[in-house]
Please model this.
Amino acid sequence: MIKRDYYEILGVSKNASIDEIKSAYRKLAILYHPDKNPNNKEAEEKFKEATEAYEVLSDNEKRSRYDRFGHDGLKMGRDFHQYSSFDSIFDAFSDIFGGRGSIFEDFFNMGSSRSQSRRRSMAERGSDLKIRLPLTLEEIATGVEKTLKIRRFIRCDDCNGTGAKHGSGFRKCNVCNGTGEIQHVTRSVFGQFVNISTCSNCNGTGQIIAEPCSKCKGDGRIQAEDTVKVSIPAGVENGNYMPIHNKGNVGKRGGEAGDLIIIIEEKPHEYFRREGNHIIYHLTISFPEATLGTELSIPTLYGTEKLKISSGTQPGTIITLKEKGIPHLNHYGKGDQHIYINVYVPTHLSSKEKSLIKELAQSSNINEFKKNNEKNKDFFEKVKDAFFSLL
Model:
């Protein structure tokens, strides 16, 4: 499904300020909130769509990538968070509405259920994994699929990620009595103060494992080697990174997995140098080839190409092969291959070769060049004298 433009969703211009973006999102969030539109799937989707648009456009880094590359640009950086529930959406826009206990709860009368304190979940989201993926310029030019072997935490199959031995389950924490909190009462001349801290015995969950799983030792996960297939699009650059959702470390006790962050590394090439989407190639030809012209086969990222060298080609000449460079990552077209011509001057000559060169030096073409060169020298001497006369 083609995604709509984020600016269009919020009804703002591309140069809208952050305050304008917040204001537009506030109106849409109130209009389409699920509690105001029960059993209305269309309103629910509009609510999610507006939240996704706000989450990108309110972040300077994500907004910059989106403005440059569109939706694909977000995939090459930090992918926007995929909300698993409306509860996590409330967290995302708390900066606009002042937290869960403010405008939404007053407007929709939701405070009674959401403002209650809740015990910390036993499940914890796993950490992200970062790996560097070296690619050749040829792979970058065409795109490539890779199968990666990684070592990560996966869910323990003996306890299905719970951390508890099969059949044992959990019991209420006997330190906090299942609340997940410890109250410390301090008395002073000013009265009684209550300080609440997280229970260290159950880490705030209110429950402890009755009998830990022998395989994972109560962690709910084990380390193992895993394989991941990834598809790298053509045109990526050195330092680009791509998140693979849920392919990082699995969290403790049933927690969701983090992401696998793939960081692109561009391998140095034997012949080519990359400049943006263009490819630079240095070609050295002989003096006869430069003088008389020739046709040569040269390498490109897509195979060999025939290159015509015109007679009289000078050192430093640049010949361009159109669209033989790197594809643009998020739109059509490719860069070019620029060929820089160098002319080889031999350092050791035979007596016969020296004789031929001397004969060439007396030719009319060479003499004409010398005359023009002397004229240029005379001109520059006059300019220099005029300049110094002003000092």
About this structure: Confidence is low (pLDDT under 50) at residues 77-94, 98-118, 387-391. The first strand starts at residue 129 and ends at 135. Residues 36 and 108 are 7 Å apart (CA to CA).
